[in-house]
Amino acid sequence: MSNSLQMMRISHISPPADLPRAFKLDKGRRISLGEVIPKISSCLVTDPQQGSTSARPVTRESKEVMETERNVLVGTYARAPVVIKSGKGCKLYDVDGKEYLDMTAGIAVNSLGHGDPDWVNAVVEQASTLTHVSNVYYSIPQVTLAKRLVECSFADRIFFTNSGTEANEAAIKFARKFQRFLHADKKLPATEFIAFTNSFHGRTMGALALTSKKQYRSPFEPVMPGVVFVEYGNSEEAIKAIQPGKTAAVFVEPIQGEGGIYSAAKDFLQALRTACDNAGALLVYDEVGFT
Ligand SMILES: Cc1ncc(COP(=O)(O)O)c(C=O)c1O
């Protein structure tokens, strides 16, 4: 079937069975301070007011910020009723000076914590040396970082982007171009993509098409056609779905983050690698990056 949206065998996604999971979330449980933490997802399309309905007492300063936020920002997030003002290392402080342990590290990206002195020095030094130049010029830090990443990773070359979703947009384009280049003699080279149940690849239209969760996609449909979803961890189904001349690339999260911390088994990833090699398709690992 050419249109994967018709081919999606899943109307809702449930966690895949038999996959290793690092921990279980106990949603809505009471914490020691006796406060009810509302069910929050930073990425779900939820009622933006939902996060502010908690029983947590809200001080005047916090309330002002929250009310102003409602008037000046587009309501795309259900936020916890906490106004964070500063951070140091793994600690966060709200406008009332209350201290929190930062268990989310931004959105799983602040691996050095808040205000790391070496990181601060590097940012200040670069910002005061050269703020930004277009990619039409060469720039020393860009080349230095790329060289370092090539030296300490599997990659032969680096492509810098501003976000995870743009990395996937780039991978979609690279895959299409790769197939076109490889099969220049063919009228219609492979253009389809395979992604997995429970996946999250970003919010731009291409990455959204690779994201299985209905609540992310449905408000924006039609998204990019040509994506087939296979059950995460199911090697047999994946091997069947990866077709020479049809599949341009397979997108997989070795560890599903947004989906709920599910890790792929080594055998599954190995099966994808072999099937992609056999079909002349690319295998794209979507892994979370760190600042
Ligand atoms: C696996 C994965 N891919 C893509 C993204 C999108 O990244 P960004 O929010 O930087 O666009 C995320 C974000 O959480 C992610 O976890």
From TrEMBL:
Transmembrane segments: none annotated. This is alanine--glyoxylate transaminase. It comes from Musa troglodytarum (fe'i banana). It is an enzyme of class 2 (transferase). It comes from the Eukaryota. Its EC number is 2.6.1.44. It catalyses: glyoxylate + L-alanine = glycine + pyruvate. The lineage of its organism: Eukaryota, Viridiplantae, Streptophyta, Embryophyta, Tracheophyta. Pfam families: Aminotran_3. Belongs to the class-III pyridoxal-phosphate-dependent aminotransferase family. Its cofactor is pyridoxal 5'-phosphate. GO terms for molecular function: alanine-glyoxylate transaminase activity; identical protein binding; pyridoxal phosphate binding. Keywords: Aminotransferase, Pyridoxal phosphate, Transferase. One of its GO terms (cellular component) is chloroplast stroma. Gene3D superfamilies: Aspartate Aminotransferase, domain 1, Type I PLP-dependent aspartate aminotransferase-like (Major domain).
